[in-house]
């Protein structure tokens, strides 16, 4: 028991100068640095690439869903033209007309539905799987890096741990050797411990260098792997371009076909076809326009519609300065004298400006071209309202012959019991003036003068339009009696 050597503790040897130097040399031999930072940043980069790939996957997934949704939207569009055209019989039934245009529209819209479904399928089965495989490759690369780094780090740490233990033993027994010359076990001989430390240190360095080479190889492989990632992404996007480009080209061709079907229809094609099929119901464009000359209506030629006389007369205006104004006058078989502004029945309604019922009127003061009519205007016009009482109206014919014709007809109309004259016109005499049994204007005037007491002539102011003249009725009656006797 006296031969035993009490070995000093590590805590005591640390306080010595030798152990302190040994501890400092230990820190220099086994640095605390490792390659975990390199591993972490490489793993983070792979994570970034994985997320990038995931973004593209999400994009393509959303896009192929949008294409499927778009096909459903075009199915709704197709339903708007799925039913036949209303009143389709009005259009040409062949493919060259409007009906054919809508057939083309339906076919190409159905084609658009199918086209979006095909695009959805291509994105889902061609583009998206490429990105999904790349995603799995990136995940596998990260797993490989994580596992390889962990294995190399574990081996290095194990080697470092062994070296550290042997260094500590060397330091412990080297301190024991310095403090005491007692016998040491052979296994604890500082020489043996020193050589064992060299062996372990070499093994540690070998493990560290192997781990370094492995990490350098992994780091260098990142350049090639990222090249592979980008090439794969470019290939997937090229497939995407081919898919969408094909869709765009076919879609454009379908729209062009729709437009072409519409443009090939001649502008008058549908009308000509419609006209030919319905010519019995449509108007003949060669039908001449109707004119009054070839129009007839009931009682158009009734004898009551033919004036006994008509033509242009001049009537004296109430205003002295105006004198006579021309108008168109007619004596109807019904016994009315109608006065118009003109003889145009077409441009405006032929409403008389003045109307006298001749059986209630008297005719007198015949003097060459002039004569007067005393009576009440019954036209109801503005002029007629001015003559709502009996007035004497002065007229003047263009020729003496016309004056005689007018007087003859007017006199017979004033005295209905006399002979009825046939229609006549101042311009074209249908019968001789003698046929009315009316003597010439001078004879009638002489007879009237012989059969009645002479009276003073009517003043000019009394013959104006709308002025009641106190005419001697005996003159008119005598003239009428003389005409009746001569007839």
Automatic annotation (TrEMBL):
Entry annotated with the keyword 4Fe-4S: no
Annotated keywords: Phosphoprotein
Top-level taxonomic group: Eukaryota
Phosphoprotein found in the keyword field: yes
PH domain sequence ranges: 306-415
Biased composition annotated in UniProt, kind: Low complexity: 416-429, 447-466
Region (Disordered): 416-487
PROSITE patterns hit by this protein: PH_DOMAIN
Full protein name: PH domain-containing protein
Organism: Helicocarpus griseus UAMH5409
